[in-house]
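Could you please review the protein record set out just below?
***
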Amino acid sequence: MPVSRDAIAKAVADMKAKSEKHKFNQTVELAVKLRELDLKRPESRINESIELPTAASKNVKVAVIAGGDLAIRARNAGADVVIGRDELDRMGREKKEARKLAQNYDFFVAEAPLMPQVGKSLGQMLGPRGKMPTPVPPTAPIDDVIKRQRKNVRLKMKDQPVIQVRVGTEDMPDDVLVQNIQTVISRLESKLEKGSKNISGVAVKTTMGPLVKVATTQA
């Protein structure tokens, strides 16, 4: 079902109007219900990250796996943690530590020459979570890479044909939320076998607010 910008804008406005004010800044979540998918087929399951025009959260944690100059620049750029070759080797042996790392960080970046070692040491923990690192060359502008990673959200389908993803916070301007939502829907349409025809419903909500449906049109 195609979803227009106007329909998204109206739903966002309705969502804010229906959401009671709280002492904290509520998250805005998007839910997309899918149809006519065979979830037994791996290719029908969506599990990938997508960069939004505007970061949905200020709390996205990025881990950088690197050595030498790239590691120094990553620390200076504000990476939440920088993991060197020795630490990578240790995590290959300390599965509990590797699991904790996989759980505590949202996105990973790795110096390309270290990717084989990453796969050996952390692949078992990161792979199933869809968190395998984005490889970058040793000369990469790591500050820009980290900034872009912090704009990422993960689109992941579990055992139901539904994608639920954070797209912002209630204090964001409506047009920023609309643009983030459009970006997610466009990516889903490009990944789905039948495009918008695989979408059966779209809704938005704040953390404590009611679900507000986005009007769709027949394809």
